[in-house]
Write a structure and sequence with these properties.
1203 residues, alpha+beta, nine-stranded antiparallel beta sheet, 36 strands
């Protein structure tokens, strides 16, 4: 019934109109989940959004008073190790199977859980305070027709907010109007993306003109259609419908929460997203957790230990079953009053041994690993050798979980611009209408070599230097129309903003390239003065002209070009375009001139490692523009894939272009880049450069930074296409069933010739090239997009199973940084997006060498040594119970006292191995850099793998065997000095425990390569703590207080007064350590490692003579940093060598420098694995305090050794 349907539709529209008039004061938003379709606004949608859109209060904390304990325990028990020990604790409560008191598991578990809980609580309290402070900030909100103070948490979607200079933006706002001309608003985005340079935002012209007063803002009743809340900081799509017109909304119209209003007195904004829907909050979610290879291996080894534990417990349980059948059931004196059969007793014995042997799975392992990683991160932060004083930027470890992975890097993927280069652009050369200008061009024609004098131009930037006077003369004469057009394009086709400070023009450019080009045009007489939403004003050779901007076709990484359509004062319409030569040449008109000569000039510029851009133009008729403009407006309003729609429209107008010329900009290499790349290459690290530059530029940069060398055979993408095609064809012909097997078997190499190979490949050749590229010493990928950069990293990770590191400085490197195993950000000229997404950050590429070869290698060595020893000491401790079971009927009886089992990992053996994991080093930092081959064992995973794990297991088995059977033999048929037999169980437990403590303490001493006072104190202190605790626990006083808990009354004093037992302990420890000493001697003598070969070099610096000379350039803490540079202190023992004495000041024999000498002396001992002796008397000399800004009041920044 069509009439009935029409009546229902009318009623529905009337209802919607009524509700809309009710909701009109507070603007409603709706999110189109299917933006490609025409969405219909219904009343139900509006009402539901009114109630379900988030408020502006934020909540970043995890716990409150009621939920902290249960929620924190729940999160901690999601870890398998904690859950395992909780299960053990439950088993120990069951009387039938418990073999150890409950506190032997409870105390270590509570300590581990408590430490983690306290850390979580401190972090969450800080989040509570921050949330409270932010939610209670004040701002002005339009309420009841006037602006009133309101707190941030009270702001709702649809509110109109007034902000003033230096105010933080409380939510994601649509900029409506501002006090600046053309509705401009400057914001600082430091809290959002880390960038401190100002960015400008611009409101729509219609809102700026009609929404300046409070009354106008109160009557504002537009409808906003926008995208769903997301974390894209670089994108916003929306549409405003108001007074029957539709207006496109973009990111430039938005003020995002977390930014700060600058250089703008007043601005008004409409709340689009609030609270958790804002972009900054969407970006505060959990990032992808990166795990190291050692983490994965360690987890598998813990699973292996658990499997071994199950097998051993099962074997001992079966043993108890047979023992009880044959012996236990027949011995009347062993009757326990329980009528269990042998099988059930074996079952109980199995669970009993699960409890007794639980220390094979170390509960404190994960906590200790986190402590070590935290310490390594602090050492990186404190390293003054990675501090960039020019920008006051220290190195920063933004994660604490990946330090040892720095010692296993196999592939480095680096951006070029701003990473290898300084990203400080200088206009050096250009070609105009087929003629080239600039330094070194046509020297025979232009004999002047002095810089151009810009005194004729009052607006010139005096810092700008250009050597070719001929071009300046052509421009000043106004006769060279091509040159005039060339610089007019540079002054008009850009997105630069200008700020007039005391009569001086200050340009704020989105990229250094744009700033350099606009500055060049400024010096040549085409001065960019100002811009509005619709106009650009420039000074053309002394005449001020204003051009109407009809459209701006912005640059992105896919388009690789930008264009602007302008209406000249005389009414002409012209499109100016600048971009990469590859995309410009595809769009040139067939009538354009100078293509060949310009291409030759571009090749010359590229060979000089200059960055190039082609410039072109196109005249457009009024009718043609009108037709195109309609399509452009429609594309701007698309709510689906707006970028694709706009690109399609742009393509229609960016064709049949006329070439003007090309620019060449110099971007110099950073200091130390060639040396760093050469050193990393010696460490067998393969470096790939991924850049958007053209092939010739990338290749020449490769040679200048030593990535490419003369002894390499360079292969280009075009050359290897046939090899790739043949390989793919062969692979396709393989039967499907054999494909996986074929991938596992090594294929014939691409390059059969001997020697080094390098590959230079463009973005179009990136598919199926991994095998070929990995055969090369160096790879350069040019003309690649940000997405292709990430794809390259992903391909190598996936097919080569290699540890990768990506390093970059800009937003276009973020995907690559996040994809790699380790991401490094450089805080350069392109903002802080790369740093904010990275795991490690510093200011210069050359610091990567020290990060990997020093901190990374040390962290890997320390972690591997820690894990090997940790497993060994736990096997040695636990397996004594296994040997004891053969003599106690497999009855789950423990070999030690209960409290020794409780405190072994917590107090008796934890500190020495923890300090080895924090401080140990095989060679010092100078030798680590001098001998890059030391890095290779980490790449190959030689220091910690299943082989090392089983070596630790068998070593622990051997030591546990000695620790049990030598005291067992000594206790058989013995008589004490006082006529008493010390062969009781408690005395035996004391002797085995004492032997174990001495053995593990001396074993870690043998494994320590780098002795400090702290290490020595830890080893001796652990032994002292053991004896102190043991005599207290075995005292009569504590037994009187807790008779059922402390049952070894007088056992220690009674046993250790027997010299015979001390001799037993000495014999046990000696036999346990003797094979280790012999094996270490043989390895270092017959099969020395690279570190063993290098270590004598460090001895030569200090042990070659008798007198001690101290190099002192500065007497501050910075000079005490333990690095082998000649500018800093060095303690050396020399034998009169000329090189050593040069520049040094010898300390007279009687001169005294106690305070300084103690510092130098302790640092020297910390720096080298040997001791230097010096004599000094008691005079006074105090070192000056460091004046380094980042050292501040904490001398720890001088490097990890100062800690």
């Amino acid at each position: 019934n069509s009439s009935k349907i029409q009546d229902e539709e009318k009623e529905q529209r009337h209802w919607e109109a009524s509700v809309w008039s009710f909701l009109k004061p507070s603007l409603q938003l709706w999110y189109s989940r299917e933006p490609q379709k025409d969405a219909i606004i219904t009343v139900g949608l509006l009402v539901s959004l009114h109630f379900f859109l988030q408020g502006n209060a934020i909540k970043t904390y995890k716990y409150n008073v009621l939920t902290f304990i249960p929620l924190n325990l729940y999160e901690q028990f999601k870890r398998a190790a904690n859950l395992y020990f909780l299960a053990l604790l439950i088993l120990q409560i069951i009387p039938q199977i418990t073999t150890l008191p409950w506190y032997t598991t409870l105390i270590p578990l509570v300590v581990v859980l408590g430490i983690t809980a306290i850390k979580d609580l401190v972090d969450d309290l800080a989040r509570h305070r921050m949330d409270k402070e932010i939610n209670n900030r004040k701002c002005e909100v339009l309420l009841n027709g006037s602006f009133q103070d309101s707190r941030w948490r009270q702001i709702q979607v649809g509110d109109v907010v007034r902000l003033k200079k230096n105010d933080f933006i409380p939510a994601d706002l649509l900029l409506l109007s501002s006090s600046n001309p053309n509705s401009l608003c400057y914001v600082e985005t430091a809290e959002l993306d880390g960038e401190t340079n100002l960015k400008f935002k611009m409101g729509l012209r219609v809102t700026d003109e009609m929404l300046q007063e409070e009354r106008q803002l109160a009557d504002f009743d537009a409808l906003i259609d926008c995208e769903e809340p997301n974390n894209r900081l670089d994108k916003f799509l929306g549409m405003m419908q108001w007074n029957g017109e539709r207006y496109p909304l973009e990111l430039d119209n938005m003020l995002l929460r977390g930014c700060k209003v600058r250089n703008t007195d007043v601005c008004h904004g409409l709340v689009i997203f609030a609270g958790g829907d804002t972009k900054i909050m969407k970006n505060s979610g959990k990032t992808r957790f990166k795990r190291t290879k050692i983490d994965e291996l360690m987890n598998y080894m813990v699973y292996t230990i658990f499997a071994v534990l199950i097998l051993v417990a099962a074997g001992l349980g079966i043993g108890h079953t047979f023992w009880y059948e044959q012996i236990g059931s027949k011995a009347w004196y062993l009757y326990d009053g329980l009528n269990y059969n042998a099988t059930y007793r074996g079952f109980l014995s199995f669970w009993g041994y699960i409890i007794v042997l639980n220390t094979m799975v170390p509960i404190s392992l994960y906590v200790s690993v986190e402590v070590i990683r935290l310490g390594q991160s602090k050492f990186i932060n404190w390293d003054l050798q990675m501090y960039f004083a020019e920008k006051d930027t220290p190195a920063k470890a933004r994660t604490t979980t990946l330090n040892e992975q720095l010692g296993q890097i196999q592939y480095i993927f680096s951006d070029k611009t701003g990473t290898l280069t300084q990203n400080i652009m200088e206009f050096k050369k250009c070609t105009i209408a087929g003629r080239s200008y600039g330094t070194g061009i046509f020297v025979c024609l232009n004999t002047k070599t002095s810089p151009v004098d810009w005194s004729w131009n009052q607006y010139a930037d005096q810092k700008f230097q250009f050597m070719d006077h001929l071009l300046v003369a052509n421009v000043k004469s106004k006769k060279d129309k091509d040159a005039m057009e060339f610089f007019k394009l540079l002054s008009l086709c850009h997105t630069v903003m200008v700020d007039n400070k005391d009569g001086d023009l200050v340009y704020q450019a989105a990229s250094p390239d744009e700033g350099a080009l606009v500055t060049a045009a400024r010096n040549f007489g085409f001065v960019f003065l100002s811009r509005t939403q619709d106009t650009i004003t420039i000074m053309e050779m002394g005449q001020e002209k204003t051009y109407e901007m009809l459209a701006l076709l912005d640059f992105n990484s896919d388009r690789k070009r930008m264009s602007i359509i302008l209406k000249f004062p005389d009414g002409r319409i012209r499109l100016y375009c600048k971009g990469a030569d590859t995309v410009i040449y595809e769009r040139l008109s067939t009538n354009t001139q100078h293509q060949q000569t310009t291409q030759e000039a571009l090749d010359i510029f590229a060979n000089d490692t200059l960055r190039t851009l082609c410039l072109c133009y196109k005249d457009i008729s009024a009718n043609e523009y009108e037709a195109w403009s309609r399509k452009h407006k429609e594309a701007q309003l698309v709510m689906g894939d707006r970028e694709a729609a706009l690109d399609s429209v742009y393509e229609e107008v960016e064709k049949d272009l006329m070439l003007i010329g090309a620019t060449a900009i110099e971007d110099k290499l950073q200091d130390g880049v060639p040396e760093t790349i050469a050193t990393l290459a010696k460490a067998d690290i393969k470096i790939w450069v991924l850049t958007g530059d053209k092939k010739e530029t990338a290749e020449n940069i490769g040679y200048s930074c030593s990535l490419l060398t003369d002894d390499m055979t360079v292969h280009y993408g075009e050359d290897v296409n046939e090899k790739l095609r043949i390989r793919q064809t062969t692979r396709r012909r393989q039967p499907p069933t054999n494909f996986r097997r074929a991938r596992q078997t090594p294929e014939e190499p691409f390059f059969t010739e001997t020697g080094k190979n390098a590959l230079i490949i463009t973005g179009g050749w990136l598919i199926d090239f991994v095998d070929m590229a990995c055969e090369c010493e160096a790879v350069i990928c040019c003309r690649v997009t940000p997405k292709q950069k990430a794809n390259v990293v992903s391909l190598v990770k996936k097919y080569k199973k290699a540890v990768t590191l990506s390093i970059g400085d800009g937003a276009n490197d973020v995907n690559m940084i996040k994809t790699a195993d380790i991401g490094v950000g450089i805080s350069g000229q392109e903002g802080m997006q790369a740093v904010m997404s990275s795991d490690y950050a510093f200011a210069q590429f050359r610091y990567l060498e020290r990060l990997l070869l020093v901190h990374g290698r040390w962290s890997y060595i320390r972690m591997c040594k820690f894990l090997r020893f940790f497993f060994f000491k736990n096997f040695s401790f636990t397996l004594v119970h296994f040997w004891y079971s053969f003599f106690n009927g497999y009855s789950s009886q423990t070999a030690y006292e209960d409290w020794f089992i409780t405190l072994y990992n917590l107090a008796y053996s934890s500190l020495p191995v923890l300090l080895v994991g924090l401080l140990d080093q095989d060679v010092n930092d100078r030798l680590s850099l001098k001998f890059p081959k030391l890095y290779i064992p980490g790449q190959q995973g030689l220091l910690f793998n299943y082989k090392n794990f089983f070596i630790s297991l068998f070593h622990g088995i051997f030591v546990s065997l000695i620790i049990f059977f030598i005291p067992y033999g000594a206790f058989l048929q013995t008589m004490g000095q006082d006529g008493e037999a010390p062969s009781d169980y408690q005395s035996f437990a004391v002797v085995t425990a004492s032997s174990l403590i001495f053995t593990v303490s001396l074993q870690i001493s043998l494994d320590t390569s780098y002795w400090t006072f702290v290490n020595c104190f830890a080893v001796l202190g652990s032994i002292a703590i053991y004896f102190g605790f043991m005599f207290d626990i075995h005292s009569a006083g504590i037994h009187v207080i807790f008779p059922s808990v402390f049952t070894f009354t007088g056992a220690a004093s009674n046993a250790l007064r027997q010299p015979y037992l001390w001799l037993t302990i000495l014999l046990t420890v000696g036999i346990s350590l003797l094979p280790v000493i012999c094996i270490q001697f043989l390895y270092k003598t017959i099969w020395p490692s690279v570190g063993d070969k290098v270590r004598p070099h460090s001895m030569l610096h200090s042990c070659s003579g008798h007198s001690v000379k101290v190099h002192l350039v500065r007497c501050d803490l910075v000079s005490l940093h333990p690095v082998g540079s000649e500018e800093q202190e060095e303690v050396r023992a020399s034998d009169g060598g000329k090189e050593e004495e040069e520049g040094a000041r010898a300390l007279p024999a009687g001169q005294a420098l106690p305070s300084l000498c103690l510092r130098l002396f302790s640092l020297t001992r910390l720096r080298r694995p040997h001791l230097v002796r010096a004599e000094h008397s008691a005079a006074s000399c105090r070192p000056q305090r460091s004046k380094c800004k980042h050292q501040g009041d904490s001398p720890r920044r001088g490097g990890e050794h100062l800690s």
